Amino acid sequence: MGSSFTDSPGVAFLGAAAPRHVAAWARAAERAGLGSVWLIEDYFYPGAFALAGAAAAVTERVTVGIGVVNPYTRHPALLAMETAALAGLAPGRVVLGLGASNRAWIEERMGIPFTAPLDTVRECVEIVRRLLAGERLTWRGRRFALDGVRLEWAPGGGVPIFLGVKGPRALALAGEVADGVHCAILASPAHVRRVRATTAAARPPGAAPLRVIAYVPLAVAEDGAAARAALRPFVARYLGFLHGQSILADAGLDAARTAPFREALLRGEGAGHLVGDDILDAVAVAGTPAECRRALARWAEAGLDAPVAVVPPEADVPGQLARIGAALGAFWKETRCR
Amino acid sequence: MGSSFTDSPGVAFLGAAAPRHVAAWARAAERAGLGSVWLIEDYFYPGAFALAGAAAAVTERVTVGIGVVNPYTRHPALLAMGLAALRESRGLGVQVTDEGIFEAQRALAREEGVFVEPSSAAALTAVMQLVARKAVDPEQTIVLVLTSSGLKDPGASRAWLPEVPAAGDDFDALLGVLRERYGLELHG
Asked: Which value does ipTM take for this structure?
């Protein structure tokens, strides 16, 4: 695959409505000239590989990304099998996002021991990469064991593996072994700078440049106030989920500032009215086309290769995608080429 | 889901070429009026859920089946998530056991004279279950593709096979074993 998918913004699909709409949304993304569509796998929402297969089947050009899956609920050999299927459906336009997930989902909710997450991800990256390359693999690791496993159909090289990670040790691992980093939702230009610095320090000499992409809540409209209003409740919900995490501290939103969002979430209340312009501008891109271009320039300057727009699923998704493509597509390409 | 997918034969897709062709094959199955398309997940062939998603996306009417996946390599919660993603396609999954697979493998050997690998027999045990619970009309014609020979994995079948005699490495010794053990008189 070329490096071209990051020449344009991408888009992420998520939520309970994704199965009914993914084909139409993926076609709309391709029509809008976006570079990539990403299938988010949040527990316990619809699974990413079935959705990605659907997106791959109805498109010709756009890159299809899995963002992200973990090696606890699927064995690495199976991850390689599903990724190979996807790579055959969409040759040269698949990206696999891997991460550790988290203890709350894996161990507390599903009873799978959340053992040695960094080792688990590290072994998984190497196993999946070598299987996709067509190697017959015997592996005796700390976490996984394979005996003479070889994919019956391997796409060869050309499936980049991105890590969806945020902590310092995990970012160092990404710098060491991954093709890219996929920053979680509510990243910020400051977070992208930290990702760049931490991964650069760990990058082996001579390795290909690491690509950095990020989920960015994004809304663009001629009526800038309406676009901003549409994102406030969405951002408020994620501030409640991620309260206290380092990715928010990077954006200058410490636990004291995000506590009201957590409390509102626990009470089952919306807190969009608490998302002031400063918070919105720190972690999202929203407004008129000109305002959105100015905001994205700050992300580009921080070292972002491509934003992956997270559009509230209750919005008119195809309409949003058309506006994102028209207002920001050419701008992003020029900004990256400068 | 209605029971209507069993009103017509189904078809199973498998093998290394499936990713490149599944969209065209699924469309062809629908055009041909088949009731279901099944995505077989043999190890270490391309994964079934990505293929099933593709088949679901390019068809309107045909049932999309996962046939079959196991609860060792994917956590059951994840299986449920994958099936939820396919639900719009009115798909179906069936859980099978080792015993059921061996029973289907024996039935194929006994009734058809075909010795298949246990994973190949998994689709048959799924159909046997569907017949037993009346989800499938026993008079239906159902196409199952038997994906690999039993000789690929004889170890797994040893539990129920009678003792297999060993022959020497020359042809005469083999003829001798066939004659003594099975009463077969063959002439080279």
From this structure: 0.86
